[in-house]
């Protein structure tokens, strides 16, 4: 298969959770996709949009288009984050005007959230993952409601032979991250993540799996502060797990 | 109603600390959202029904001036006197004048959020007119001297215990914890008021332009009573309530009752065309309709916020909101709470006064997904933030403080080039070094303080993704293995 992907690695992943990026690259390669990464990329501007600073976001949007537009003409741009994909595909066209707007609209058609890309473009559900363990899956807001992607990550998880899927009640209710919201309103955001984690723990699952880096920082951070046994993983980490390596990579 | 939107954070904390309230709130999504979801599933195509609702309301608001004129003409033909009020004070004056001219000393009221906005009850009572809310929840709220907690269930947070005590105090009845008994006590008390009131005041759920009809939706019969027992019925409506046709109104009704209480239809729906006709057996002798602007035309004039007027006050965005169901309704500090409060209150009380309402949200979008009126709350919340960032004056906004703007400028500057970004990333790692213990950040100072209050943050690894990538590429070109993690 001669398929190419330009990786879009959100700044949060680059800075705090690089494993999610390397696992995404590894997974795509294993599925026969050639992968490139342009190190000029920084941040899509989502925090600026959330702060109302559309002026700053606009500059970053133009920069993003300059980096990705030509490079992805014959390929797809894939990110292990729904909210950053949402920023590029939904916010950019509204933020920009003229030539950039046209490019943004065109680019929006080839920027994919990871699970969307795997299932709907590659046509893959069985990724050959060697992951084993009991899993609860959480649907992050921008993936499930923003992009309308719900069946894809579940199909991918279902196809992992070693994963035992457990039902998480209210699996599509927000975990309380919301970027600066989590720092500015810790009491409210804390009550939300507490709820989410309590429900996940109550399923008895060893792992909580989700596909949004921000939510991972939030949920994993809460779990660790509370010293709970739940392990929080990105979908890419689960899918990238090679047979026989379980416990060494995914759980790190 | 007194505006306390500035106290959001403080009141939210109060709400979070109130255990009985938390207990009630934890059940609401299961109950109300569950009922709503089930009721929506009884429609052949729920998504299409919601989209149709959105289209009807978008059309209605786009054509609002023209539809209001048509509505006024038709309802006037039906024998209703229409009175226009520019603001709350105008509206209160009109109602008060109508009451005084008729020597009214007792009024029964149907639940109306607009009259809450206006603070009508306080005004009437201050003028010596006994005014009784007759919706059970609203009656409890009025007697307890509280404010509505929820736009549909104003007293959902008040416990049976509190209500039992309240009824003893207000009505001198025997204390009971039996829910049916309590309802009967209120019913008995209010029945006498209905019979002696000379005026009934209600809100309006929808105003049908084509037929000149007022639509009123309820479950208790108290609105029906208020509009038929007293001689005079005064309905008060905001200019946004108009819809073009009866067909439109009926579709919105399907969505309204389902979204509100999970009912396919509510127990009572009143379609009021005008006063009692000679051969009618009952009904009011005269009907007045006060149409209030109250800040709405200003919202209408703003293309970015106009869509807020599409709201039909069904309350379903509250029931499914993960923030509202934690902090409760009082936190929002004014008539409207939850997602609709967060987008509407700032436009009515001022952007600056209501800043926390549009910042204290994770933008999860559940509100948008359940709204039967096509409101895109997350988009509007971001619009509010944007207006504030640039100091838009239309709705009372100042620019944010210099420090905030500086941080944003430096941050954005640092993201505009790969070199700066890498430098920033190194500086960041140095700056947080003192706060690292055991590979974690457990207590950061501002602006990260709030985050680490609840969560630990991993220490940013020494190698970023781009470092790993560069190493891998170099490894390939050099043809030798270099250590990567
Ligand atoms: S915004 Fe939508 S969901 Fe919320 S109260 Fe209004 S109509 Fe209902």
Can you walk me through this structure?
The complex is a heterodimer of chains A (252) and B (485). Chain A is an alpha/beta fold and 252 residues long. Chain A has 13 helices and 8 strands. Chain A has helices at residues 11-15, 18-30, 46-50, 54-68, 82-95, 98-108, 114-121, 141-146, 151-158, 180-184, 186-202, 213-226, 235-240, and strands at 3-7, 33-37, 76-79, 111-113, 133-137, 163-166, 207-210, 231-234. Chain A starts with a strand and ends in a 12-residue tail after the last helix. Chain B has a 6-stranded parallel sheet, with helices on both faces. In chain B, strands 8-5-6-9 form a 4-stranded mixed sheet, sandwiched between helices. In chain B, strands 11-12-13 form a 3-stranded antiparallel sheet, with no helix packed on it. Chain B is elongated. By secondary structure, chain B is α/β, with parallel strands linked by helices. Chain B is built from 23 helices and 13 strands. In chain B, β11 and β12 (440-441) form a beta hairpin. At the A-B interface, α1, α2, α3, α4 and α8 of A face α1, α18, α19, α20 and α21 of B. The structure holds iron/sulfur cluster. The site of iron/sulfur cluster has 15 residues of chain B, from α14 and α16.
Across the major sheet of chain A, the strand order is 2-1-3-4
Bound molecules: iron/sulfur cluster
| Total of helices of chain A | 13
> What can be said about the biggest beta sheet of chain B?
6 strands, parallel
Question: Main beta sheet of chain A: strand number and arrangement?
Answer: 4 strands, parallel
Radius of gyration from the alpha-carbon trace of chain B, in angstroms: 27 Å
The amount of beta strand of chain B, in percent, is: 5-15%
Structural class of chain A: alpha/beta
The number of E-state strands of chain A comes to 8
Listing every helix as H and every strand as E from the N terminus to the C terminus, the arrangement of chain A reads EHHEHHEHHEHEHHEHHEHEH
Query: Unreliable segments of chain A (pLDDT under 50, ≥5 consecutive)?
Result: 247-252
Overall 3D geometry of chain B? Answer: elongated
Q: Helix tally of chain B?
A: 23
Provide mean pLDDT of chain A, rounded. 95
Please indicate the percent range of residues of chain A in DSSP E strands (runs of 2 or more). Answer: 5-15%
């Amino acid at each position: 298969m001669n398929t190419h992907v330009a990786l879009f690695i959100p700044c949060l992943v680059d800075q705090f959770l690089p494993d999610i990026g390397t696992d995404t690259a590894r997974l795509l390669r294993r599925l026969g996709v050639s992968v490139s990464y342009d190190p000029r990329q920084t941040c899509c501007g989502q925090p600026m949009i959330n702060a109302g600073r559309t002026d700053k976001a606009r500059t970053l949007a133009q920069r993003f288009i300059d980096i990705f537009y030509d490079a992805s003409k014959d390929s797809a741009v894939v990110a292990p984050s729904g909210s950053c994909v949402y920023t590029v595909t939904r916010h950019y066209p509204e933020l920009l005007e003229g030539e950039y707007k046209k490019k943004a609209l065109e680019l929006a058609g080839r920027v994919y959230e990871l699970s969307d890309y795997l299932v709907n473009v590659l046509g893959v559900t069985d990724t050959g993952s060697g992951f084993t363990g009991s899993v609860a899956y959480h649907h992050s807001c921008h993936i499930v409601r923003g992009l309308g992607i719900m069946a894809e990550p579940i199909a991918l998880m279902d196809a992992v032979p070693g994963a035992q899927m457990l039902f998480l009640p209210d699996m599509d209710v927000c975990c309380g991250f919301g970027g600066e919201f989590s720092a500015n309103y810790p009491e409210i955001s804390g009550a939300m993540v507490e709820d989410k984690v309590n429900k996940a723990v109550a399923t008895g699952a060893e792992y909580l799996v989700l596909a949004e880096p921000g939510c991972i920082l939030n949920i994993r951070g809460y779990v660790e502060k509370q010293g709970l046994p739940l392990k929080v993983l990105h979908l890419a980490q689960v899918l990238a797990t090679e047979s026989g390596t379980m416990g060494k990579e995914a759980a790190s | 109603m007194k505006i306390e939107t500035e106290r959001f954070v403080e009141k939210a904390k109060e709400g979070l600390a109130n255990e009985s309230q938390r207990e009630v709130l934890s059940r609401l999504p299961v109950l109300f959202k569950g009922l709503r979801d089930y009721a929506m599933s009884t429609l052949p195509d729920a998504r299409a029904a919601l989209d149709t609702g959105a289209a009807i309301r978008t059309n209605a608001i786009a054509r609002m001036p023209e539809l209001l004129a048509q509505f006024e003409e038709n309802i006037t033909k039906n024998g209703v006197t229409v009175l226009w009020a520019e603001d709350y004070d105008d509206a209160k004056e009109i109602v008060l004048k109508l009451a005084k001219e008729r020597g009214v000393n007792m009024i029964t009221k149907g639940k109306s959020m607009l009259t809450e906005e206006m603070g009508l009850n306080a005004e009437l009572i201050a003028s010596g007119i006994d005014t009784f809310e007759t919706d059970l929840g609203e009656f409890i709220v009025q007697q307890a001297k509280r404010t509505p907690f929820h736009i549909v269930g104003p007293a959902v947070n008040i416990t049976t215990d509190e209500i039992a005590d309240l009824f003893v105090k207000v009505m001198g009845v025997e204390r009971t914890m039996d829910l049916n008994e309590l309802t009967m006590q209120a019913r008995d008390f209010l029945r006498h008021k209905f019979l002696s009131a000379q005026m009934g005041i209600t809100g309006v759920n929808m105003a049908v332009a084509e037929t000149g009809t007022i639509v009123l939706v309820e479950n208790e019969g108290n609105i029906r009573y208020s509009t038929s027992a007293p001689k005079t019925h005064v309905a008060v409506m905001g200019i946004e309530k108009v819809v073009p046709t009866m067909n439109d109104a009926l579709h919105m009704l399907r969505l309204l009752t389902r979204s509100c209480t999970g009912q396919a239809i509510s127990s009572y729906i009143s379609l009021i065309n005008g006063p009692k006709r000679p051969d009618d057996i009952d009904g009011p002798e005269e009907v007045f309709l006060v149409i209030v602007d109250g800040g709405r035309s200003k919202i209408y004039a703003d293309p970015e916020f106009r869509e807020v007027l599409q709201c039909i006050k069904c309350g379903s965005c509250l029931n499914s909101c993960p923030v509202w169901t934690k902090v409760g309704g009082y936190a929002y500090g004014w008539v409207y709470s939850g997602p609709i409060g967060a987008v509407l209150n700032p436009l009515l009380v001022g952007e600056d006064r209501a800043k926390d309402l549009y910042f204290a949200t994770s933008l999860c979008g559940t509100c948008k997904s359940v709204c039967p009126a096509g409101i895109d709350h997350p988009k509007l919340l971001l619009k509010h933030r944007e207006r504030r960032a640039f100091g838009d004056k239309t709705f009372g906004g100042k620019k944010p403080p210099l420090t905030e703007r500086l941080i944003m400028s430096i941050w954005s500057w640092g993201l505009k080039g790969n070199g700066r970004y890498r430098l920033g990333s190194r500086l960041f790692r140095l700056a947080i070094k003192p706060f690292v213990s055991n590979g974690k950040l457990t207590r950061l100072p501002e602006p990260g303080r709030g985050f680490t209050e609840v969560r630990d943050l991993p220490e940013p690894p020494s190698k970023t993704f781009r470092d790993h990538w560069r190493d891998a590429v170099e490894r390939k070109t050099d043809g030798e293995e270099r250590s990567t993690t």
